[in-house]
Amino acid sequence: MAHDSLSLLTVLGSAGTVVKLVLLVLLLFSVISWAIIFIKYFSLRRDYRESVRFQEFFWKGSNLSDVYSKMKHMGESPAARVFRAGYKELKAAGKAGDGDTLGRRAAGMDTLKRTLDRTCSSEMTRMGQLVSFLATCGNTAPFIGLLGTVWGIMDAFHGIGIKGSASLAVVAPGISEALLATAIGLAVAIPAVVAYNTFLHKIRTIGSELENFSSDFLNIVERDLHRIQGDS
């Protein structure tokens, strides 16, 4: 009977208004964080796989024009978007066509590098969307739970003062209500922190791959430019 009187549902039902409000906020945080965890897990896994797949396809292409013309059947990926932005900049600067001066081609390398850097940065920002909420949840959920705990303990002592008794039967329900808020706060924060660190590592890994791909792209263009200069 004692176990039943201190069951979770009983504790929740007898909790004070402030503690219930704290638990409601923590529940909201939990629902949002788990939704983000599932969304970002599948999104980042897709981005990584598609980027690896595109880079394999890229190195099998005979030239940049061939890769661009055949990439339509490839899935969208960060690496593909970086390549597309770089190739369009090449076309705009005349590096993918004929009839432009070597001086103009050389001057366009800085613009190309800025375009690639900007696109890489944009992809990193896109992949990092929503992830920051997990850090916020991990940092604040324990404190929100602690607020509920402190308030619950205050309530328990207030009840003791009114009843004039400090027996276990009087103290235990209020203390259990108070500690429940901290426990739930930790239960919300721990998965959020683990997921945040995991996603951050994955984003950095993809970002490093994008930087390497961007450097390889620039090296290919510079090599072609030097070959053209040598032929002329």
UniProtKB/TrEMBL annotation:
Gene: tolQ
The keyword Phosphoprotein is assigned to this record: no
Keywords on record: Cell cycle, Cell division, Cell inner membrane, Cell membrane, Membrane, Protein transport, Transmembrane, Transmembrane helix, Transport
Domain of life: Bacteria
Compartment(s) of residence: Cell membrane; Membrane
Family to which this protein belongs: Belongs to the exbB/tolQ family.
Membrane topology term: Multi-pass membrane protein
Name under which the protein is recorded: Protein TolQ
Predominant localisation class: membrane
Pfam families: MotA_ExbB
Coiled coil: none
Xref: InterPro entries: ExbB/TolQ_transport, MotA_ExbB_proton_chnl, Tol-Pal_TolQ
Source organism (scientific name): Desulfobotulus pelophilus
Membrane-spanning residues: 6-39, 130-154, 174-196
